[in-house]
Amino acid sequence: MTWTDYDSGSCSIARTAGILADRWSVLIVRDLFNGVRRFDALQDHLGIARDVLTRRLNLLVAEGLVDRRPVAVEGRRSRHEYVLTGAGHDLRPVLVAILDWGDVHRSGRDGPPASLRHRDCGEAVHAHLVCDAGHEIDDGAGTRLVPLGGARLRTP
Amino acid sequence: MTWTDYDSGSCSIARTAGILADRWSVLIVRDLFNGVRRFDALQDHLGIARDVLTRRLNLLVAEGLVDRRPVAVEGRRSRHEYVLTGAGHDLRPVLVAILDWGDVHRSGRDGPPASLRHRDCGEAVHAHLVCDAGHEIDDGAGTRLVPLGGARLRTP
Predict the structure, then answer these.
(1) Would you say the ipTM is above 0.85?
(2) What global pTM score does this model have?
(3) CA A75, A31, A41, B105 torsion: positive or negative?
């Protein structure tokens, strides 16, 4: 069996990429990680069309990555805020890996716009590939892909 | 200054997400990592429309993530193959983090379809957040974002 004998869509990358379906979804999740919670604030910061933001948020809520919660505001109609669920927070390594790549390959001449730091020691935080025995993986030659029970062969 | 005072588009996540603009781009990069090199093979495995694949590959080539190389085939018109550049290979932690999330949150009842293993020791490889002092970061409370020289305030 080779890689292309397996069904493309059954792969965990395909399933995840189907949720983070476009750059807006990634940026919405990024802003939620950074504490932006209100629809209007997301819309204003991202410069996204309201109908696109509505559709993306609805998808993220339906997929269980985001909670939509009512917020009572004195004297005004009820509002909602959006917060990441546990599954949403589990996207943190994805966002940090994307951040790392952009810092290295798409910084302008002034360097990266921001650095994610460890609160305790102040050092920069990056996504690393590490095996369960604790070995750091530096390049692709060090890994191989093993099919498991959830693998699906392509149907002709 | 708060997060929303900064320009959304100048962020390294936004710049990277603008290249990996949709799920097709992610799946093309995944297949290139797995050794699929020819247009027809990519098209067949992904089930993607040819014009969409052409546009996505052209973008990935223009952005320096993929090399398009001529391949001489005896007695046939010249062909091309597509291979990841160094910058393309640097996306590995992004792909593995996406894979990890899907394995945890989108596996069917048969479990994950595949496992990425360390070739030397056979243990599973995952994306971890680690600071430059070697501390593993387990949750978001352990990090803070520090603006650097490349940060851009929003223009009103």
Answers:
(1) yes
(2) 0.94
(3) negative
